[in-house]
Amino acid sequence: MGEIEEEEKTGKDWAKIIVPRVLRAIIMGFIMGGEMLLLLYLPQFVPQFGEQAMEMLPVQTTTGLSYFFLIFAGIEVAIQLLRGTVFPYALSMARSIISAILLVQMTNGGVMTFTAQLPSGAQMAAGASIILTLDFQPILGVILLLSLISVIKNLLQAIDYLSKKEEAGFPPELP
Amino acid sequence: MRQSIRALGWVVTISTLLLFAFLASAVYSILQIAIMNQGIGMGDFQTEFKDGRLILSMPITINNTGYYDINEFEVTTTLSDKDGTLIVTNTTRITEIKRGDTKSEVHALSLSFEDLFSKAKYILFNDTEIKLLISVGFKYAYALGFQISMANISMPWGAPLYGLELKELNVRSFNGTHLFLELSLDFENHSFLDIGGPLHLTVYNENGEQIGEGMGLLYVPSGGRPEEPIPVIVVLTHPESFTGRGYADVSFQFPIIEQPIELGEIEYG
């Protein structure tokens, strides 16, 4: 009984466990979408740099993109905080499914249209508009397929984790 | 189980890397073709007037300096009136341009004035705008589709019979078989072409009985107006019905169009 019972953890022990996790979660959250969120919201804080950054982005509206990166970064933070449990696998699956749905919705099913108005100074083309349509449905199809494989992989990992836990035996409930 | 999970992990990682490498190279390559090497070139529209048709032609040259093939290259031009009614459209297709190849084609848009006037008769009498739509589409690397359209390009249209008004039809003389009339009409030729052709008159008496048909010649240069009344000689088929009063239906035959254009009705006498 004494072998499987864990010693009561002190505040220092908890700090040793929690602090690295939190740091790891912050770093991974930043890598997995946080930096893009920063770039998207930078125009609000530094207008001069913001304009240049927005010109580099392929879309005019940041709303859809910010949701996408927010979900990505948020789930990554949760995954890092819950390491060692079955939840990261479930969260990874959820992330794959949500990001696939968002990607399809944001890219209009792989057909994106951008419109630009020509300057009124142009002689014949005054008031004319340039419409650029980008069709990348085959690429989106491959991305969705990879998301599906990722979901299957995470499902298998979750099953594997649970079966191992079953074999090793769960720790008894605390008195 | 562990092996399958590991294999799936590798599949996802390697496939993602390959996909993004392909995407990056394709985007870089298309930018290189379109912007750096000016590989997709379209010349200015050349205008030619032939057999009653206005032919707009545009040379297209594609020099594929990229890493992948270009296929399903299409150029479409469409002319429509200000309400969006289609006047004419044409598409030129180049099936495939392999990497390293150069292909040239001439895209032509043939506009028949007969079609134009039959579809939109009001443009004979009213200045308006003709809308031009140019659309270029192609597939790159068999996976990325691009379509660039320039919509709402307006071309001013000058009406050849702008503000037409049949003012007066005077009887000059009558010799028993022929009737000599003078038709005064007013309009401004806003077209880029001179107008010249026969004016047809079908003459009726005041009871509505047809008494004969006649012809006069109209010529108005581009930007001009008819300055003098047009003499019309009418061959009387029923001279006994001529009463000195009545009306005439006036039509004009554009040399470039088979069907005469009805200009209206005017009274004489």
Task: Summarize the structure in words.
The complex is a heterodimer of chains A (175) and B (269). With 175 residues, chain A is mostly helical. Helix content of chain A is 66%, strand content 8%. Chain A has two domains: 75 residues, no CATH class; 90 residues. A two-stranded antiparallel ribbon of chain A has the order 1-2. Chain B is α+β, with helices and mostly antiparallel strands and 269 residues long. Chain B has two domains: 150 residues, Immunoglobulins (Immunoglobulin-like); 107 residues, Immunoglobulin-like (Sandwich). Chain B has two helices and 15 strands. The longest helix of chain B is centred in the first third of the chain and has 35 residues. The mean pLDDT of chain B is 89. The interface between A and B is medium-sized, with 28 and 27 residues.
| Cross-sheet strand order for the largest sheet of chain A | 1-2
Mean pLDDT of chain B: 89
Content of β-strand of chain A: 5-15%
Q: Which two chains touch over the largest interface?
A: A-B, 28 and 27 residues
The percentage helix of chain B is 10-25%
Short structural summary:
The complex is a heterodimer of chains A (175) and B (269). Chain A is mostly helical and 175 residues long.
Set down the secondary structure blueprint.
The complex is a heterodimer of chains A (175) and B (269).
Chain A (H helix, E strand, L loop, with lengths): L10 H35 L1 H10 L6 H19 L5 H20 L4 E7 L11 E7 L1 H32 L7
Antiparallel strand pairs in A: 1-2
Chain B lengths: L1 H35 L3 E3 L3 E5 L2 E11 L6 E11 L5 E12 L4 E11 H7 L8 E13 L3 E14 L4 E13 L3 E11 L6 E11 L4 E11 L9 E7 L9 E7 L8 E8 L1
Keywords:
heterodimer, A: 175 residues, mainly alpha, two-stranded antiparallel sheet, 8% strand, flat, B: 269 residues, alpha+beta, Immunoglobulin-like, 2 domains, seven-stranded antiparallel β-sheet, four-stranded antiparallel β-sheet, 2 helices, 15 strands
